[in-house]
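Project channel, design review

CF: Before we commit to the Bradyrhizobium uaiense constructs, I'd like one complete example in the thread so the newer folks can see what an input/output pair looks like. Taking Antibiotic biosynthesis monooxygenase.
RD: sounds good, go ahead.
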Amino acid sequence: MKHYAMSTRTISDAINTSGLLVVAQWEAKEGQADKVAAILDGFLPEAQKDPGTKLFLIGRGKDNPAQFLFYELFQDEAAFKAHAESAYFKTYIAEQALPLLAKRERTQYTLL
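CF: and here is what came back for Antibiotic biosynthesis monooxygenase:
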């Protein structure tokens, strides 16, 4: 994955206001990790430019490349819902990536 930052905003710009933080962990099925990474490579720039997205990062496990960590900061619950209902989410995540996963966990947080 080549994309790590979004537009010209800095991390401090993103976190200096309220928002909904979502942390997700995925594990690809045996032999599917590279396919998942390729799907996420197309998905990430779309997620980062979504107007309700303040910060969106995806990491891949160094010790276990079948593991992926998502760190997502949205303006609010409505922005997160719009993200999950977007055409790019449905295509990349729901249709392509989810069938390749052995495990998917997601937790939501409010910023302090």
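RD: helpful, thanks. The first helix runs from residue 11 to 15.
CF: The mean pLDDT is 89.
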